[in-house]
Specification:
The chain contains 3 helices and 5 strands. With 130 residues, the chain is of the alpha+beta class. It has one domain (3-123): Alpha-Beta Plaits (2-Layer Sandwich), CATH 3.30.70. Strands 4-1-3-2-5 form a 5-stranded mixed beta sheet, with helices on both faces. The chain is globular, with a radius of gyration of 14 Å. The structure holds flavin mononucleotide (FMN). Residues 24, 28, 31-32, 41, 48, 50, 52, 62, 65-66, 69, 71-72, 93 line the site of flavin mononucleotide (FMN).
Length: 130
């Protein structure tokens, strides 16, 4: 079975409030589950990096929606291609955000770092997808 993956970066138009972010994730996860799409969204203060993967036509369709979404701009593809295995098979949209409350900071930063590294390592041009 072959899948398609796409990683893009973009700049948030403005910082989303927690409730807006929850809503975005809820809608994204529901739609992704319906379409068999999985992936990961990293949310830095001024940068989104998202990997989406699944059926090629679904991924292209989602990317077309994403490109015109007013919540971010300068949407640019970093890497895309065919893969035999998903990178994040268990996640309708894994999410990590760096600006957690101070009490959460250490633990969440570790998780953030771990997930960032796993996503960013996919971007390493010497790291060929399988
Ligand atoms: C940073 C960011 C990430 C998003 N991720 C997803 C996603 O994984 N899946 C999804 O369906 N929509 C996602 N969206 C929303 C889409 O841009 C778009 O609103 C949605 O696909 C519209 O679907 P509709 O036209 O069917 O209502 C995301 C939006 C933003 C700003």
């Amino acid at each position: 079975m072959s899948f398609y993956y796409l990683i893009y970066s973009s700049i948030p138009t403005r910082a989303l409030a927690d409730q807006e972010l929850d809503e975005l994730l809820h809608v994204a996860r529901t739609a992704n589950s319906e379409h068999g799409t999985t992936g990961m969204l990293l949310c830095f203060n001024e940068l989104y990096i998202q990997l989406i993967e699944g059926d090629e036509s679904k991924i292209r369709q989602l990317y077309n929606n994403l490109r015109v979404d007013g919540r971010h701009y300068q949407v640019e593809i970093l890497r895309e291609g065919k893969i035999n295995q998903r990178f994040f098979p268990d996640w309708s949209m894994a999410f990590e955000r760096k600006d957690e409350p101070p009490a959460m900071k250490e633990a969440s930063f570790d998780l953030f770092t771990e997930k960032s590294i796993s996503l960013l390592s996919i971007l390493d041009p010497t790291n060929k997808p399988t």
